[in-house]
Design goal:
The chain has 119 residues and is mainly alpha-helical. 45% of the residues lie in helices and 7% in strands. The protein contains three helices and two strands, in the order αβαβα. It has a two-stranded parallel sheet with strand order 1-2.
């Protein structure tokens, strides 16, 4: 590997980190689209405001013949409403979890989650 003797500035380091993380998000999103056979991507939440992420997702969606829906910045602030909506969909389908049975799993794989409210 070639190592530069020039120091890398903070801006370059941050840009490189952003590109890497966004590439990972795009790859995961593409995998989820393939798994669900979805022809659309909806980008929301705080990160959804980032125009570079929107650009990268749009390029991936275009290559798959899919479409990207990026919501207005006013709706890209908090995921709380989306979490509440998902909980309501689960509740309407009779899915109930007591506090004692509930847990947080940060490493949940989207392709291993049973989506009962869609069946």
């Amino acid at each position: 590997a070639v190592v530069s003797t020039q120091s890398t500035g903070a801006a370059d380091l941050c840009f490189s980190l952003q590109e890497t993380v966004f590439a990972m998000l795009v790859e995961i999103t593409e995998r989820a689209m393939a798994h669900t056979r979805s022809p659309q991507v909806l980008v929301v939440g705080g990160v959804g405001c980032n125009l570079r992420l929107q650009e990268m997702l749009a390029q991936m969606a275009d290559q798959r013949g899919a479409s990207l829906c990026a919501t207005d910045d006013r709706y890209c602030i908090d995921n709380g409403a989306m979490i509440a909506h998902t909980g309501n969909l689960m509740f309407e389908k009779g899915m109930h979890t007591s506090i004692e049975e509930s847990a947080v799993t940060q490493r949940f794989r989207t392709d291993e989650v049973h989506i009962a409210w869609r069946s």
